[in-house]
Design a protein that fits this description.
about 110 residues, mainly alpha, 2 domains, 4 helices, globular
Length: about 110
């Protein structure tokens, strides 16, 4: 996973190159998601009309993700990425119980 947005505008040549790498890495996924959305819009197939697309990002869960390379395949990085993704999924599931069929989180009375 690479960040979909940047907290600050890159100014140095290395920051600009890093941001371009992130944009290029996400471009294919973004294009495929848009193609699926278009297919859903025009009702290409019954299966596609029933498709629900969501996007879960672990940007907030993974401290320093923007500083990592999209081509990093180191085991420690991949383990951190997996753990961050699992945390983002759990947070999303807790926030959207109706859509997922999960019970709503209980709120303690004070």
């Amino acid at each position: 996973m690479t960040p979909t947005n940047s907290e600050r505008l890159p100014t140095s040549p290395s920051e600009i190159a890093k941001r371009l790498e992130q944009i290029r890495f996400n471009a294919t996924l973004n294009a495929e998601l848009e193609a699926l959305k278009y297919g859903m819009f025009v009702g290409a197939t019954p299966k596609l009309r029933r498709l629900r697309i969501g996007r879960i990002s672990a940007q907030e869960e993974f401290v320093g993700l923007a500083d990592e390379s999209a081509g990093n395949l180191g085991w420690e990085f991949l383990e951190r990425l997996r753990a961050s993704g699992a945390g983002a999924v759990e947070a999303w599931l807790d926030e959207t119980p109706r859509a997922t069929g999960r019970a709503a989180p209980e709120i303690a009375a004070e």
